[in-house]
Amino acid sequence: MTTFLRRQLRPAIAILALLTLMTGVAYPAAVTAVAQLAFPNQANGSLIVVDGQTVGSTLIGQSFSQPKYFWGRLSAAGADGYDGNASGGSNLGPTNQDLIDRVTKQVDEWRAANGDAPIPADLVTTSASGLDSDISPAGAEYQIARVAKARGLSEDEVRAAVARHTESPILGFLGEARVHVLELNLDLDGALK
Which of 124, 125, 142, 179 has the greatest number of beta carbons closer than 10 A? Predict the structure, then answer.
């Protein structure tokens, strides 16, 4: 038994301890250090800070319901949506009655708030993460009249704000053009400098 411990168990325990230190301590510490040095904003959650107070993240959507704000995509993350601890889509198929009912309800709500123009699909569907911070330029355009009226601004003033927060596809071809909802709403509130 003593020979077994010396020849088999001791090296196994030593290798386990060494690999645990390398992969569980040294590697995560090195990656964290590099991220903090090279990309500090992203490593800390891409937070949006206004007047010393954190108001959100560029990565996670929030719920807006007042007419003076642009509204983002629906969220299926958590019981009430926009729960960062419960990120995920609804996983409902296109023929699922729950999905059909939810989309129909959303279409009715959007039309009640914005009129009968065609509603962009991203405004009545959820994303895979349920936490999208962006909407399509068409989704923003659809809401301009409501937001302008609620704020007492011209549609051109609101459209200019939308243009300031519209990002092109990465490298000109990866992904879609998008509008960051929180930053746009903060801009309209005069909070972004």
Answer: 179
Query: Can you tell me which residue has the tokens 């009640």?
Result: 112
Which one, of 68, 64, 60, 50, lies nearest residue 85 by Cα?
60
153-180: average pLDDT: 94
Say if CB 132 and CB 123 are below 8 A apart: no
What are the boundaries of each domain within the chain?
A: 2-41, 46-189
pLDDT band at 3; cut points 50, 70, 90: confident
Residue position matching structure tokens 């929180």:
182
Burial of 40 (0-12, 13-18, 19+ CB in 10 A): exposed
CA distance 150 to 64: 14
Q: What tokens does 26 get?
A: 């040294």
Give the span between the Cα atoms of 23 and 14, in whole angstroms.
Answer: 14
Neighbour order of strands in the sheet with 134-135 = 134-135, 178-180, 166-167
